Amino acid sequence: MSTATRGRYSWTVVVPLVALVVLAFSWGRYPAPLVAALIAVPLIGAVLAAVHHAEVVAHRVGEPFGSLVLAVAVTVIEVALILTLMISGGASTYARDTVFAAVMISANGIVGISLLVGALRHHLANFNPEGTGSALATVITLASLTLVLPRFTTGAPGAEFTGAQLAFAAVASLALYGLFVFTQTVRHRDFFLPVEPDRPGPHDDDGDGHADPPSTRDALVSLGLLVVALVAVVGLAKVESPSIEHGVEAAGFPAASVGVVIALLVLLPESIAAVRAAARDDVQISFNLAYGSAMASIGLTIPTIAVATIFIDDPLDLGLAPLQIVLLAVTAVVSVLTVVPGRSKPLNGGVHLVLLAAFVFLSLQP
Question: CATH: 3.30.365.10, 1.10.155.10, 2.40.110.10, 1.20.1420.30. Which one for 67-209+241-364?
Answer without folding.
Answer: 1.20.1420.30
